[in-house]
Amino acid sequence: MHGVAVSTPPAYAPFHGKQGFPKTQNRSSLYLKHSRKKCFKTLRPNVITAQLGLEPPPFPLDALEPHMSRQTLEFHWGKHHRAYVDNLNKQIAGTELDGLPLEDIVIATYNKGDFLPSFNNAAQAWNHDFFWQSMKPNGGGTPSRDLLELIKRDFGSYEAFLNEFKTAAATQFGSGWAWLVYKANRLNVGNSVNPRPSEEDNKLMVVKTPNAINPLVLDYLPLLTIDVWEHAYYLDYQNRRPDFISVFMEKLVSWEAVSSRLESAKSEAAERAREEQRRHLEVDEDAENDQAVEMYLDSESDAPEAE
Ligand SMILES: [Fe+2]
Asked: What is the distance in A from the centroid of ligand 1 to the CA of 10?
């Protein structure tokens, strides 16, 4: 049974009230096409707990055959993904994380690398949603023209990108993920990692992450992912991870999903830039006001003393 509310506060509380939570509500809607369904239970008067739901993949479980079998989806989504969601619901029931969007739970529990107990289940729940939405029946092919232009700008060629992505996925030691991401500086970092702004912002990058780590906590905007945990491919490809990766890119990837996410990422990057500009203007205005006060004081000191 899950969703049991507890009356005592959580043992871990690295932040204080809502101030500690990142402002990422908009991004939840940007990167998860289907909002996660929640059911609310009143276990006793004045105690309500929200449960995150398990969303199905956006295609029938046999729709990716023969490249990804129904049996793999039944285990991978029906058992592994379900376990992450169920375990997370148990862990956060009645805590201050209960009822938050999944993406906010991921960033809050990452806690700048000092994971809270529920991080792995939260991140794995989010990663799998993102993975299912990265694929479609009869996928593969080539990216849209705009996306392709950006890939050529940042990797040199589509072949160079493909090679880098496949290499990242194949060389991730043990369990983990490979990602295509959009790098844009974030102003409100919350509990994520915040690399310094640089001229290299606003570009595509390939990254690989171990276990449950994902780009959200590394301050990147994710566009595409492949799950390279063994449970993702073992039933269909046994130990031939490179074969699974090649088939994923040639037959399963949804470039439409990647393009849609790229548009959202560009919008967010533009909003960040506007926010930064506003912040600079406020600093300049403060500096001007300070200077005006200083001049006023100087002119006062030059005036003849009153008798
Ligand atoms: Fe998985």
From this structure: 28
Q: What would the 3-class secondary structure string for 150-168 be?
A: HHHHHHCCHHHHHHHHHHH
Residue 32 CA, ligand 1 centroid: distance in Å: 17
Separation of CA 117 and ligand 1 centre (Å): 19
**Residue-level pLDDT at 13:** 29
Q: How far is CA 56 from the centre of its chain?
A: 19
Q: Angle, nearest 10°, between helix axes 82-92 and 119-132?
A: 140
- CA 229 – ligand 1 centroid, Å: 6
Provide the β-strand partners of residue 42: 48
The mean per-residue pLDDT over the stretch 293-302 comes to 59
Global pTM?
A: 0.78
Residue whose tokens read 């969703």: 3
Instruction: Please give the distance, rounded to the nearest whole angstrom, from the Cα atom of residue 180 to the centre of ligand 1.
Output: 17
Distance CA 239, CA 227 (A): 14
CA of 213 to the centre of ligand 1 (A): 12
| Burial of residue 48, with CB atoms counted within 10 A of its CB: 0-12 exposed, 13-18 middle, 19 or more buried | middle
Burial 154-172 (b: 16+ CB within 10 A, else e): bbeeeeebeebbbebbeeb
Question: Which one is predicted more confidently, 23 or 17?
Answer: 23
Q: What is the pLDDT of residue 88?
A: 97
Separation of CA 80 and ligand 1 centre (Å): 7
pLDDT tens figures, 99-131: 999 999 999 999 989 999 999 999 999 999 999
Written as one letter, the residue type at 145 is R
Average pLDDT, the chain: 81
Does 24 have pLDDT greater than 70? no
- CA atoms of 271 and 269, how far apart (whole Å): 5
- Judged against a pLDDT cut of 80, whether residue 28 lies above it is answered with no
Alpha-carbon gap, residue 239 to 36, rounded angstroms: 33
